[in-house]
Automatic annotation (TrEMBL):
Any one Gene Ontology molecular-function term assigned to this protein's record: transaminase activity
CDD domains: AAT_like
Family in the record: Belongs to the class-I pyridoxal-phosphate-dependent aminotransferase family. Alanine aminotransferase subfamily.
Coiled coil, from the record: none
Source organism phylogeny: Eukaryota, Fungi, Fungi incertae sedis, Mucoromycota, Mucoromycotina
Organism: Circinella minor
Full protein name: Glutamate pyruvate transaminase
Subunit structure and binding partners: Homodimer.
Length: 487
């Protein structure tokens, strides 16, 4: 029998910040999608679809994206170093290319211990050095391994930086609208003040520095201590990419307004118009700015995105530029309280930044896999964008980068009334209906915030290419039926 003794810990007396925190990417709709998936697995035949497609989250391997062969070969050898013993050599060399075997040996040597041991809290020094070399090569400016912190995905880094920035509830952090809800959720958890600034949808979700300046001055005049600016580039959920000149203006603005810049660059290789809008890191932009030695910048990267999509391994890093030395020591203390980021994630981070080189035995296959995935992602982004733009009442900016499209939906009066009757936001109502009709799970725009009176949803374009036309067909049919029903 269940005990009747009242619980010590209840939803009423728990940490209110956690209670108030919201994270729509894995919110109510995603939970409902899992229920539907269970029903299908148990043989349900009463649903109008035969599979649930999770387009709510940028989780490529969940949708059958194949991992990069070389990376998995190396990590599997690191996980099972018995395979590197001399007596197994002839057997293993039939299964693994020589460069994968050599790389695994090198990594284990660099780590200097089993990967089951705790590492340096900032990440294994040699692996951090690989990351520093990658940054130097990417940007043409050196990076210091001691300014790098390897993390469990970019998420952990973002949370650490937001935590250290938060002095009290007056601490304000500028976050884009729409934004990836890691930012709003973490600020709620910390009890800091999110200061929203708006991206302009009509001009491709562009960022206007003078608009942000007004926002800062207004927030400061109300007593908010605005001290950092978050930029997601390429954008999530918007897919926009910043122009180099705009980035210089942003840096100048940060200098003038005394703001630390947090540059979330996890989608830096998901760039679909490289000629028109190549990726430029904020580190490089900073190095080319007159205030290169002053402006405080923290930039984030991850193994979860790009063509790698190793989200479940939880790897990433952040790089600090121009931070106060005392603050970096405090960051080290924070990292040390968690002992270390998981070592498998650190290894994958190092592999991401040092892939096979031309001439290496694995180079050709690696190139083929990366290019194949990239071209496929690009094709899928264009196809889905066209599908959205052809829908009645829908407009969709192209994804210049990232893994998402964020179409704007204009819903008929009757649909708005129905949503109100159900006490739902109109975009949530639309996404609910989509899930129940098609098995496709997307995220309502309200989960990312949006300009008042506009409604959107976010979908990834990650469903497998062989099934992509079918997937698009389901969305088209759903939308047409929805509009016909509520017109
Ligand atoms: N920053 C941005 C902009 C992201 O989109 C994500 C993940 C992260 C950071 C954190 O990623 P990792 O911790 O895995 O490195 N994107 C989520 C999303 O919107 N869909 O999938 C996860």
């Amino acid at each position: 029998m269940a005990s009747t003794t009242p619980k010590v810990l209840t939803v009423e007396n728990m940490n209110p910040h956690i209670r108030e925190m919201e994270y729509a990417v894995r919110g109510r709709l995603a939970i409902r999608a899992e229920e539907l998936r269970d029903e299908l697995a148990q043989g349900a035949t009463n649903l109008p679809f035969n599979k649930v497609v999770s387009c709510n989250i940028g989780n490529p391997q969940q949708l059958n994206q194949k991992p990069i062969t070389f990376f998995r070969q190396v990590v599997s050898l690191c996980e099972n170093p018995d395979l590197l013993e001399p007596e197994k050599e002839s057997l293993v060399s039939q299964l693994y290319p020589i460069d994968a075997i050599q790389r695994a040996r090198q990594i284990l040597k660099d780590i200097g211990a089993s990967i089951g041991a705790y590492s340096h809290s900032q990440g294994v020094p040699a692996l951090r050095k690989s990351v520093a070399n990658f940054i130097a090569e990417r940007d043409g400016y050196p990076a210091d391994p001691n300014s790098l912190y390897l993390t469990q995905g970019a998420s952990a880094g973002v949370q650490n930086i937001l935590s250290i920035l938060t002095q009290n509830e007056k601490t304000g952090i500028l976050i884009p609208i729409p934004q990836y809800p890691l930012y709003s959720a973490t600020l709620t958890l910390l009890g800091a003040t999110p200061v929203p600034y708006y991206l302009d949808e009509e001009s491709g979700w562009s960022l206007d520095v003078e608009e942000i300046r007004k926002t800062v001055h207004e927030a400061r005049s109300k007593g908010t201590d605005v001290r950092a600016l978050v930029i997601i580039n390429p954008g999530n959920p918007t897919g926009q990419c910043l122009e180099a000149s705009n980035m210089q203006d942003i840096l100048t603005f940060c200098h003038e307004e005394r703001l630390l810049l947090m540059a979330d660059e996890v989608y830096q290789t998901n760039i679909y118009e490289p000629e028109q809008r190549p990726f430029v890191s904020f580190k490089k932009a900073l190095m080319e700015h007159p205030q290169r030695d002053t402006i405080e910048l923290v930039s984030f990267h991850s193994i979860s995105k790009g063509m790698i999509g190793e989200c479940g391994r939880r790897g990433g890093y952040f790089e600090c530029c121009n931070l106060d030395k005392g603050v970096t020591e405090q960051l080290y203390k924070m990292a040390s309280v968690s002992l270390c980021p998981n070592v498998s994630g650190q290894i994958m981070t190092a592999l991401m930044v040092t892939p096979p080189k031309q001439g290496d035995p694995s180079y050709e296959l690696y190139q083929k896999e990366m290019t194949g995935l990239y071209e496929s992602l690009r094709r899928r982004s264009k196809k889905l964008e066209a599908v959205f733009n052809a829908m009645e009442g829908v407009t969709c900016q192209p994804a210049m980068g990232s893994m998402y499209l964020f179409p704007r939906i204009r819903l008929p009066e009757k649909a708005l009334a129905k949503a109100a009757e159900l006490n739902q936001k109109p975009d949530a109502f639309y996404c609910d209906q989509m899930l129940e009709a098609t098995g496709v799970c997307v995220v309502p725009g309200s989960g990312f915030a949006q300009k008042d009176g506009t409604w959107h949803f976010r979908s990834t374009f990650l469903p497998e290419e062989s099934l992509f036309d079918e997937f698009c067909g389901h969305l088209k049919d759903f939308h047409a039926n929805f509009m016909a029903k509520y017109k």
